[in-house]
Design brief:
Elements (H helix, E strand, L loop, with lengths): L5 E8 L2 H13 L12 E3 L2 E3 L1 H12 L6 E8 L9 H17 L4 E9 L7 E8 L5 H30 L3 H31 L1
Antiparallel strand pairs: 1-4, 2-3, 4-6, 5-6
Helix pairs in contact: 1-2, 3-4, 4-5
């Protein structure tokens, strides 16, 4: 079955108190075994305490202009343990940065990994944005989240080569050098073609 990537849930509120309630839910939602979780919160700078998150959400709410607190759920559709916690956090940061390239200021965001619930690992994210997300932007976010996820998987694979095999570091360096050489050659050819056209 092909892998699927999607924003499986989106909703927003204008209320900072409701946003904080969403953070509590994200952090403590019960696992599949009915156990109350206590998951680590993280954001732009890494791990966060709930007090730090609440303070940042209050600051976002007080920012000039309107603030929309979006509840997002990203599901990579790969099952469990296909990315490490560090890689899931890096993936979340890439997706949040994509929102800003759409011209929407992300004043603050906080995420939680859910790896003990449902058939797939997924991320719950609360993002404080300067405007609403449009349908075409959400569609773009789905596509980009897939690309960012593949990038994290590739990096994980390359790191695995480095860690698991005695010559892994050299193999990785040679592969990267070969890729850079090809890119340099292509760039040189484009420059030459451009010069040829000028004459």
């Amino acid at each position: 079955m092909p892998r699927t990537f999607s924003v499986v849930k989106t909703s927003y509120t204008r209320s900072a108190s409701e946003a904080k309630a969403s953070v509590r839910y994200m952090q403590h939602r019960q696992s599949d075994l009915g156990e109350s979780g206590h998951r680590q919160l993280f954001g732009r700078g890494g791990e966060l305490s709930r007090a730090e998150v609440y303070e940042r959400l209050d600051q976002a709410a007080e920012a000039q202009g309107k603030t929309y607190f979006y509840r997002l759920v990203f599901n990579p559709g790969e099952g469990h343990a296909d990315l490490s916690e560090e890689e899931r956090q890096a993936w979340a940061a890439e997706v949040m940065a994509r929102i800003e390239t759409q011209g929407n200021q992300v004043r603050e965001w906080v995420g939680v990994s859910h790896i003990d619930q449902g058939e797939h690992d997924h991320l719950h994210i609360l993002a404080a944005t300067s405007r609403t997300l449009q349908k075409d932007e959400l569609a773009d976010l789905r596509t980009y989240s897939r690309e960012a996820y593949d990038h994290q998987r590739d990096m994980q694979h390359q790191l695995g080569l480095y860690l698991d095999h005695p010559g892994g570091a050299q193999e990785l360096a040679r592969a990267h050098q070969h890729e850079r050489s090809l890119a340099d050659d292509q760039q040189q050819q484009r420059r030459q073609q451009s010069l040829d056209l000028d004459y």
